[in-house]
């Protein structure tokens, strides 16, 4: 796995260095942002690569370019998300106006990189990239509007925002290999994204600081559960969310209610429902044991 990360990183370096239509400043920022991405690994690029390799007999080296292109798109979305949420300390948040141009450049480079490969089915891959990226953007819009305040609408939102990107990655690898996609790959790809988002939502509430969803009056599964309870803590949180000037938020009581009142357990239960769905879909896809184990780790 480490070798694949290194290969994707090397390919990203080449793509950035060889892009003739950007100047020194843009290129420098691209390199800096890419290095920060390198620290967390290239999980999306690896998913694409493995779903390509699983269905071919002879490897086309251009798959590394596609994996790198996907990482460019994902990083551009991460940058835009952080600029919108204003809750990150990555370097791109220091100069948001300039960083937005870098993100836009990454989006264009991602699509063009795939278009310039030698794959027979690259047009189908670009179509998947376009469709699923737009679905994710729509989900991000819904998330920013902060109007998904019940279980069903919230799950539909994160399916679009997060599930679309993981499904996209798996499907692009598959379509480049086979010229077609399968519903099972789409399903477990989508569910992996939902699982990861729910895990992030839970983690957000474990740190009582600037990134905490509750303190920022955001909605997530644990918070939706908490707000549905008829007790003193839920009432105080509702008042806090409604900007009631008399609202008093007892941090210790709220943290205790989230942890011991069932909110976190509820979110974990929903996550495990999607894990079961993902595992059922995965059983129908012929991917080798090493890759299957990695996919299962993403579902935990």
TrEMBL record:
Q: Which cofactor does it need?
A: Mg(2+)
Tell me what organism the protein belongs to: Lysinibacillus zambalensis
Among its keywords, does the record have Magnesium?
yes
Q: Which family does it belong to?
A: Belongs to the FPP/GGPP synthase family.
- Which InterPro entries does this UniProt record tie to the protein? ComQ, Isoprenoid_synthase_dom_sf, Polyprenyl_synt
- Which Enzyme Commission number(s) are listed? 2.5.1.-
According to UniProt, the name of this protein is Polyprenyl synthetase family protein
Q: Give one Pfam family, short name only.
A: polyprenyl_synt
Q: Per UniProt, which keywords does this protein have?
A: Magnesium, Metal-binding, Transferase
EC category name: transferase
Name any one GO molecular function: transferase activity
Q: What is the lineage of its organism?
A: Bacteria, Bacillati, Bacillota, Bacilli, Bacillales
The answer on whether this UniProt entry bears the keyword Transferase reads yes
